[in-house]
Amino acid sequence: MPVNKAEFVKSSASLKECPRPDKPEYAFIGRSNVGKSSLINMLCMKGVLAKTSVTPGKTRLINHFIINDSWYFVDLPGYGYARVSKSMIKEFDRTLFHYLTKRDNLYCVFVLIDSRIPPQANDLAFVNRLGSLQIPFAIVFTKTDKTTHNKITGHTRSFKTEMMKTWEELPPCFYTSSVTRSGREEILAFIEKTGHQPAIDG
Q1: Which of 93 and 124 is assigned the larger pLDDT?
Q2: What is the pLDDT of residues 137-180, one digit of tens each?
Q3: What is the pLDDT of residue 86?
Q4: Residues spanned by the domain of 10
């Protein structure tokens, strides 16, 4: 599926400030420095559509991008925040899950996992929380160009193994690199396929 047009719409501090829920939305979330903005830019073939930063945890708002005038990409505040207070973390969490549980046009959440490192407790806790709330999601393993194939295979297999301790079936999984653009066509094909109904029940 080609992306012919991609434009930033707005940043919102709360659900009520978000655009009207009249188009399908595909949201992106992950721990700090997992590569959310780089992935969105890669999917849209735009160099600076979503702003990247050397400071982890920079995304503090719900950022909407309109794609082909027909659906949204949503860059969400991450978890595992860097250099923020406990009260701010609590506020981010409240805002985030208000959006995730109340946004009726949310078709799928892409949860980004850094493929360079072993399974992290907060990543596993987050996907389990999505599952308990029956929020549709898919896993995106990022930065697959940054280390050896054997390490990528080992880390991603370990993550899936940990998930299968509490899940009967794994959600869709993708393997991506914003540098080599691997995984781009697979994710866009998945979006096209799920464009009329949610991707998976948690």
Answers
A1: 124
A2: 999 999 999 999 999 999 999 999 999 999 999 999 999 999 99
A3: 72
A4: 6-193
Look up residue 81 and give its two tokens: 């925040």
The crossing angle, in degrees rounded to 10, of helices 121-132 and 149-163 is 40
Residue 132 lies in a domain: yes
Cα dist. 147→4, 142, 164 in Å? 32, 11, 25
Report yes or no on 83 lying in a domain.
yes
**Structural domains in the chain (count):** 1
Please report the DSSP string for the chain in residue order. -----EEEEEEESSGGGSPPS-S-EEEEEEBTTS-HHHHHHHHHT-SSSSPP-SSTT---SEEEEEETTTEEEEE---BS-SS--HHHHHHHHHHHHHHHHH-TTEEEEEEEEETTS---HHHHHHHHHHHHTT--EEEEEE-TTSS-HHHHHHHHHHHHHHHTTT-SSPPPEEE--TTT-TTHHHHHHHHHHTTTS-S---
pTM equals 0.90
In a domain, 198, yes or no: no
